[in-house]
Specification:
CATH architecture of the largest domain: Orthogonal Bundle
Number of domains: 2
Keywords: DNA-binding, Transcription, Transcription regulation
InterPro entries: Homeodomain-like_sf, HTH-type_TetR-like_transc_reg, HTH_TetR, MT1864/Rv1816-like_C, Tet_transcr_reg_TetR-rel_C_sf
Helix content: 55-70%
Protein name: TetR/AcrR family transcriptional regulator
Largest sheet: none
Domain HTH tetR-type: 36-96
CATH class of the largest domain: Mainly Alpha
Strand content: under 5%
DNA-binding region: 59-78
Shape: elongated
Structural class: mainly alpha
Radius of gyration: 25 Å
């Protein structure tokens, strides 16, 4: 949450000696921000920098310059660069949540909904490469992966996982299998996205169309889920029963 800036209704409260308030700092650079808006501006501009330059070290000096405030202004809203990076990543997750929430609200068949959820993840990664790398990579330190960062990430995953659960349950999968299926689906969508951003797929010389490859991979996984749990043959079932009986007799 943004700290309350040292400005009342048109009357400064008197910042400490040698430290300018966020509003004063902004005016110094020719840009004025109303109380509570500078934090948002820093996050938004920081995100743009990741979008433009990819996964590079964020310069607070350049960020302050681009927003039009003093170099000290960001420290009024964030406890250093690491907290700012977590806020930028959280903003990315909020956007992904919004997209998946919209998909969840559509009246789609379970398979179609799960497909749209997985496609939205890959599409987001393609459209926001630098931001996506920050969201899922190691740049945000473990001690800052909490609060909004965790909440937004969990919400995005929940919309996605629930769509996989709905499809699996409709096809007769046991409840004990649901988490395995959602994690496998997550590995699938993330693996495809990561390989694309790493410029590893399609392989050179394959002449594959990227979008068709994305859809083929996701459809292949969902078709397996839609086929339902694997049915054991009578001999396999008998062997499993004998094995369990033998283990109980030990």
């Amino acid at each position: 949450m943004a700290k309350k800036q040292a400005v009342t209704a048109g009357k400064p409260t008197g910042p400490k000696r040698g430290v300018a308030s966020p509003m004063v700092a902004a005016k110094t650079q020719g840009t004025t921000y109303a109380p509570g808006t500078l934090r948002h501006a820093l996050v938004a501009e920081g995100r743009k920098m990741f979008e433009e330059k990819g996964a590079v070290e964020l310069s607070l000096r350049e960020l302050a310059r681009r927003v039009g405030v003093s170099e000290a202004a960001p420290s009024k809203h964030f406890r250093g660069k690491e907290e700012l990076l977590a806020a930028i990543a959280s903003a990315g997750f909020r956007e992904l949540v919004s997209q998946r929430e919209a998909i969840s609200g559509k009246k789609l068949a379970p398979r179609s909904k799960a497909r749209e959820m997985m496609l939205s993840y890959v599409r987001f990664a393609q459209m926001h490469e630098g931001l996506f790398d920050l969201m899922i990579g190691p740049r945000v330190l473990p001690e800052f992966r909490r609060g909004e960062f965790t909440d937004t990430g969990d919400k995005s995953y929940a919309y996605f996982a629930n769509s996989i659960f709905d499809l699996a349950l409709a096809q007769g999968w046991a409840k004990e299998s649901l988490e395995y299926l959602s994690h496998s689906a997550w590995a699938m969508e993330h693996g495809v996205a990561a390989l694309i951003l790493a410029r590893r797929v399609p392989r050179e010389g394959s002449q594959l169309e990227l979008q068709k490859l994305i859809e083929f991979s996701i459809d292949f996984f969902l078709d397996s889920v839609s086929a339902g749990p694997r049915q054991e043959s009578s001999s396999e079932s008998a062997h499993r029963t004998r094995s369990r009986t033998a283990s109980l007799g030990r």
